[in-house]
Each structure stands twice: as structure tokens, then as C-alpha cells.
Amino acid sequence: MAACGFNFETFFNIVNGGRRVSDKTTFSIDPSTECRLWEVPVATPHDVEDAVKFANDAFKNWSTTPFEQRVSKISQWKQLYEQHVEDFTKLLMAECGKPRFIAAGEANEVLALFDHNLQLRIPEERIEDDTRIAITRHVPVGVVAAICPWNFPLVLSVGKILPALLTGCSIIVKPSPFTPYSALKMVELAQNIFPPGVVQVIGGDDSIGPALVDHPNVNKISFTGSSTTGKRIMASAAGTLKRVTLELGGNDPAIIYPDVDIEKTAPEVAQGCFVFSGQVCVATKRVYVHESIYEPFLKAMVNATSRIEVGKADSPSTTMGPMQNKMQYEKVQDLVADSTTQGYKFALAPRPITFGKGYYLSPSIVDNPPATARIVVEEQFGPIVPVLKWSDEADVIAQANGTTSGLGASVWSADISRAERVGRQMQAGSVFVNSWAKTTPRAMLSGHKESGIGGEWGSLGFLEYCNTQVVHVFK
């Protein structure tokens, strides 16, 4: 099942099964070197209209394709993808600046997404009484537009494509201009398996997302990104009452109880803060440590964080690469500068990076800043984190919940029943007990408050690509 003529150095938009180029091109930047990567075509308004038209045409047949045939096609796509896991790993290293082990983790997580979705089946409920039979079904919503982020461009695009295809929808993927390459290639690979128009990809600039959101013939938007953009999408989608799934920003707290094993727990908490340079929606962004162990825990966190090796993505010794893009790099630099200007104490100060070019920041830890500090209130999405003291359980729960975000949270204690009890009080879609945020395709990923609407993954997430229909049969 080889993909003829398939390479990882030329990139196309994919419309109706065909490769499309454009008079206008753009490119992304390798964040390790600030060098130009490959050119990609910028989709035109005509490309958008064609993609929507062909997606609607393809939906008519794909939605009526027997479920097991759709499963078989997805299985074939998985087999083809398995031949290119290493190619996608290298692509993620280049476009994201991810060290090899992080990039390989994402590339292999795609296989877990395949395995999970291949096991799902659409439920049907049947209720019968003396007068009627009521059959509750889940029918495909129609044409889906997937607007994808730059931090996990492969996992978070495939995580939208698979449930859409499984349920009988057609889908148009819009990758981030910062990291377009892996999504473009993944959808190109899919053309060897699926009928034209079932899965398409159009990218290039920031005009494409709004065009898809506003289009009357797109039925659902699945978006992962900032809460600010999510609100704009929701407002625009209201014009046509599009279905929306929004996985948005977070400001995830970790609560550390005094009975933890400090030397074991502190490095784990640090990893939850700084994995992929903190550019993870469910990364730990506020650490609340009980005052009785604050000093030794902070010291252990600093020691663990100091061992992080910042370097280029392709260096075997690198454990933390660069920030993915200049925009986010400058935002985090601004937070560092603000913390310095405000006179907050750094338990671990930023250290100079001497690679010349690249968006490199060393991890830093702010020691017990005020609760009103920007570093506490704002989502950093980068390698800087505040550590704060607490003494009263009710108060720290209130502080942890005291934001407009509600994506993830973690609670750490030797007393698991206590940690679970507190975890149930967290206003967050995902709560982790004695672990940093380790998501799985088998569990729903969703946000509370301004961290999202709906959810994806798990045994129920794929039903968000459906409308519910009840058929009443009277006897």
C-alpha cells in the first residue's frame, strides 16, 4: 500500500483529491534556527469555495457508506501512516522545534488515536411501550471545518479527522500558518484511501478560518486554540447556528499537599510545567505548595528544572527545544520582564542562551508572587511558572478555581482519597491525581468555563460530530 510519488519536501493544499498550488505562497520558520522552511500555497477564496462544494458533494455518499466500510478505510489509512512515522517525526522536529522524543511521542500518539477510533461504535437506544417504539440515533452533522493549532499540529488535526470520518462527515482541515506541514502531508496521504472530497486541507493564512466559519454550507466547526479566538468563532457561528466544539486556553493549577514524597514529586511537577517549553494547553501553569514543605519543595523543583537541557531539536542531549514561534516567544519574554520589573523573586532566573538564532528561553520559576500578578493570572504558554504558598485547604481550592479558565488541574497527595475529594472540587474538564497532565485518546478532553464548549476524544467525543435523531414508530 505504498503512496506513489510521496515525499516530505513539497507541500500542497488538497481539494477534491487533487494537489493544488497557488500563485501566492508562504513558509514557516524552523524555530531552532530561524531559517525558512518549505513553501506552501496560500489558498484562495476560490479554493475555499471549491473545498466546501466538494465536501458537500462527497458527504452524500460518504454518510451513507456502511459504517464497517468506513472503519475499514480508516484502518487502511493507519497502515499507510505506519510506513511514515519516522518521516512525520522529522517533520514535527523541523516545524515545531520539538526534541526528537517529544516529536516521536506525537507521531506515535497518532497511532493511539487510530486504535481508539477503530474500536468505537455509534450507539443506538431503543425504547418500547404499548403504543410506540422510539429509536434514538446519531446521524452525521455534515461538513466539518477543523481549525487546528500550532503546538500539536498532527495529533490535534488527526484527532478531529478520525471521528468526523468515522461518523460519516466530510472534513476540511485548516492548519496553523506556523505549523502547516504535517497536516498537509497527513491529508495528502489520506487521498490514497478515501474518495475525493471526504478529507481535504486548505491553508496559507489567517483569512481561511473566518471564511470557513462564516460559510453557510459548513455545518460544524471544531477549533483548538485561544479563548479569545474561540469567542470570535462562537459569535460568528451563531449566524448559521453551526455546531461548535471549542478546546481553548487554560491556566491549570497544581495543589501540592505536605505528605508528598518531595524528591519524587517535585521533578514530576516540573515536567508538567515545562514539557515542550510549556506550550501545552493542559500544562501546569500555577503551582500551589503547602507552606510546611514550601522551601524544600521549591528547592527540589529548582534542582529538577536546572537539569533541563535547552537546545536544538536535533541534538540528542536536548530535553527542551525553542519556543515554536516569535509571537509566543515575545509574549513570554514580556511576562519575564514584567515579573522582573515588579520585583518578584526568581527561585530560578532565566539564563542566557547562546545559540545565536532561534526562539530559545530557559525555564524559570517565580517564588511566591502575589495572587494578582500577571504571571499568576495570565496563561503563560511558555517556560515560566509561579510557585505559591498555601495553608488553608478551602482557600487554595478557591484560588485554584479563581480564574475564568477551567481546562485542567492536578492534585498531589499520599492520601489518594483526599486528593480525589479535592480533585472533584476542581472546576476543570480534566483532573489528574498524582500526575501532571497525561491525556489519552480513551478519555474525553474538554474545558469548563472559558476553556471550551463540548469536548473531543473518549467514548463520547466522536458523537459531537453527530446530530441526534429520534424516530418514533407507532404500532
From TrEMBL:
InterPro entries the record matches: Ald_DH/histidinol_DH (IPR016161), Ald_DH_C (IPR016163), Ald_DH_CS_CYS (IPR016160), Ald_DH_CS_GLU (IPR029510), Ald_DH_N (IPR016162), Aldehyde_DH_dom (IPR015590), LUC3-like (IPR044086)
Highest taxon of the lineage: Eukaryota
Catalysed reaction, written as an equation: an aldehyde + NAD(+) + H2O = a carboxylate + NADH + 2 H(+)
Keywords: Oxidoreductase
EC primary class: oxidoreductase
Domain called Aldehyde dehydrogenase: residue spans: 24-471
EC number(s) per entry: 1.2.1.3
Entry-linked PROSITE patterns: ALDEHYDE_DEHYDR_CYS (PS00070), ALDEHYDE_DEHYDR_GLU (PS00687)
Catalytic-site annotation from UniProt: 247
GO molecular function: aldehyde dehydrogenase (NAD+) activity
Oxidoreductase among keywords: yes
Stored PANTHER family: ALDEHYDE DEHYDROGENASE-RELATED
Name of the protein described by the UniProt record: aldehyde dehydrogenase (NAD(+))
Organism expressing this protein natively: Penicillium arizonense
